[in-house]
Amino acid sequence: MFPECALTGPFSTVYSGMSTGCSLWGNWNMHALFQMGTWPWFGASESLEESMFTPEPLHPRQLPHGRTEMTEPPEGDESSNRSLPFYHLPVLLQEVLEALAPSPGKLIFDGTLGGGGHSEAILQHGASVVAMDQDTEALTYAKARLAGYGTRFCALKGNFRAFSRVLREANVGGLDGMLIDIGVSSRHLDAAERGFSFAKDGPLDMRMDRDRPLTAADIVNTWSQEEIARILYENAEEPQSRRIARAICQDRTHKPFRSTSQLADMIARVCPKHGKKHPATLTFQALRCEVNSELPALRDFLADAPQWLKPGGRLVVISFHSIEDRIVKQAFQQYAAPFIDRPEWPAPKPNPKYCLNLITKKPLEASEAELQMNPRARSARLRAAERLP
Question: What architecture is the 26-187+296-387 domain classified under in CATH?
Fold first, then answer.
């Protein structure tokens, strides 16, 4: 059972400081922050409650050595998750379960709820889950999918970089595990209207949280050439960052960029294709990261996460490109080093941030079996660490 909550008074009063003067929260409706879940101190959801049905949960199939595999309801079952408008395969699912070791009585934080695949697998192993996601569409889907777990599941709207503030105000204590699966979901890539991919023509949007004002179109049409070149290099290490930025600024004087294909075609024109990767791939990655503040959010999360873990609690991060993985690797190494040393010091000194033990010396990658089912898992990298006693 969850701890008693000391939260008192209406949500609008408790969270009044979040609605103004805080860039993380903007002008969100504070009631919407608690739109998901049925924990006693959050109350029942009112968001789209009457328009949705509740699908049956996935069912675990026992594998050797106590492992489980998540399987969908039988074909033709009207409650199949695929009949809902949002579908996303969770990557590295078995690796996540082995790293987090969920069991009854444990409380796990899922900071990137998405379609709810990781959370459901954790719930099936008896643990309770408090989750967050900044995408309202994902939250709506996950609520329908996981409603059957009752008070063992609750999801809040928000970016995982702000988890510390949200959980503290909700009087949630120490966590037995924490998971974030960062990056873009299959749903985002497949939905042309979200503007994440040039595979399907759509508006240059790329916002995971549609309440945020900044879009990819704003960046390419209004930012300076120097700023565009900077984010292309810093967010994606695009070697042609200056050339692409210059071409963007030249072309937009004749016609503003409005669609994904318009931008992708222009980049392909100025940067001919070499190899299998489309020339616009890194530019789209960089724009998406900037629109959603992905790298700063990851750094903020990693700065706060260890202190929320109970002794023996596990921290698991799944990343999808080298810059993200590098940030995670360096943070984990910093927390896992008993001593720190500098050339000017006569001897190493105790590391005040030492609090983790590395579970994965090298990142885990998807198996060939998973790649056959979900090729988009190819770039996924999982790192895990455990809070010291």
Answer: 3-Layer(aba) Sandwich (3.40)
